[in-house]
Structure formats: structure tokens, C-alpha cells
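During the second half of the funding period, the structural biology subgroup turned its attention to how the target accommodates small molecules. The most pressing case was zinc ion, which had performed well in the primary screen but for which no bound structure existed. We therefore specified the complex as follows and requested a full 3D prediction, including the ligand pose.
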Amino acid sequence: MSDEQTRPEPWKQSRFSWFRCPHCGVATNRATSRTALSKQPPRVVVDYQCNSCRKVARLRRAGLTHVGLPVAIGLAMVYVAYTLPIDTGPWYSPASLAALAVLMIVELALTLIVARLTKRFDKCVD
Ligand SMILES: [Zn+2]
């Protein structure tokens, strides 16, 4: 790619990060990726390295799918947490902690489903 980029982070493997390799078709929820900022045009660039064939792919619309959607889901969960019509007492009561745990699981599941539905990858020749 001809984009002028900041130095990318080192490769790191993340749990709950979905990736399907456009080179060999292998899919995983434990993707190896790194993030950089492109200066021309200014945007987030996220590259994934296939754990099977070791080739590199680039996430399309990374600003939206890697940053925007997870932030939107997180904000929606905070809104839900503060508007639940449950009188559970103080935040540290067992009912409140159980509701918080359920919300965290729902947020993780939503993030994974949205990532699975929206993430698309382009072949990259680095
Ligand atoms: Zn591959």
C-alpha cells in the first residue's frame, strides 16, 4: 500500500477478534492483528495476519468496524444499564452484580455478532 503510515504496533493475538483470511479462507475468533494510523488520508488501518498461511489482509472500513461499532455498542449497553427498570438496591447487591454480568455477556455477544456481519478483508501484499 502506498499510504504514509505511522509505525504500526507489533502483531498481537486477540481473543474474540473474528477474522476470515481472504487468501486461504480460514476463519478464527483468535486473530493476529496490528493497528496503524494512515496520514494520507487520515484513517485507522488494521492489518490481520493469517495464523494458517501467514499472509496479510487489511480490514475494510476499519474506523467504523474496529472503533465506531464497538464504541456504539458499549454506549448502548451503558444506556441500558442506567435505564433498567429494576430496583436492585445498591450497585454491589447480588441482583445488581448479576444484571451487570448479564449486560457484559450481552455486549460481548453483540460485538462478536456485529463483527462477524460487518468485517470484510482485502488481500494485502506486504
Ligand atoms: Zn490464510
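Two results from this model are relevant to the next phase. The chain has one domain: 12-121. Residues 12-121 form one domain.
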